[in-house]
Amino acid sequence: MGTLWQSTSLAAWKAALASYDAVIARQESAKLPDRDRWYHETLPGAIAARRPPHVTLPELVKLTEWKMTRGKWRARNLVLVQGNSAEAVKAATAAGLAAMPHPTAPISTIAELEGVGPATASAVVAAAAPETYPFFDELVAAAIP
Fold first, then answer.
1. What does DSSP assign to residue 19?
2. Count of alpha carbons within 13 Å of 2, Cβ hemisphere only?
3. Do 80 and 136 form a contact (C-beta atoms < 8 A)?
């Protein structure tokens, strides 16, 4: 992986991106491909269709499961996320998304929810505006030299 991070080759980065679905399919979880498709194909449109744009509690729970399926499963955090009220999730995510394009305010606002840290908050914001915000994948960050 170190070679890609240091590469300035557009072809290398495009090849890595083109292999994304295959890499997801090779992971140890049978649930990840469907969760990943939902995250990339369904959730962004659902967020964008709402006024104000926001995430619902069931979506936040599913997003948290998607994130944990990709990396480290933290059962306690999932329980904490599930314990948020629907109103609190709507308010925090609406406020966070309204703060875009600020570089940090959307993440810190959404991360005020129980069980939601910066990585999960970044997943919410990245789903809403992937052209502006990356998902902070803890495993990828740990692999960067």
1. T
2. 1
3. no
Average pLDDT of the chain is 92
Instruction: Read off the pLDDT of residues 52-85 as tens digits, 9 standing for 90 and up.
Output: 999 999 999 999 999 999 888 899 999 999 999 9
- Complete DSSP assignment for 58-120: HHHHHHHHHHHHHS---HHHHHHHHTS-HHHHHHHHHHHHHTTTSSSHHHHHHTTSTT--HHH
Q: In whole angstroms, what is the distance from residue 123 CA to residue 5 CA?
A: 21
pLDDT digit string, tens, across residues 126-138: 999 999 999 987 6
Residue type, position 35, single letter: R
Tokens of 59: 């979506």
Which residue reads 């744009």 in tokens? 53
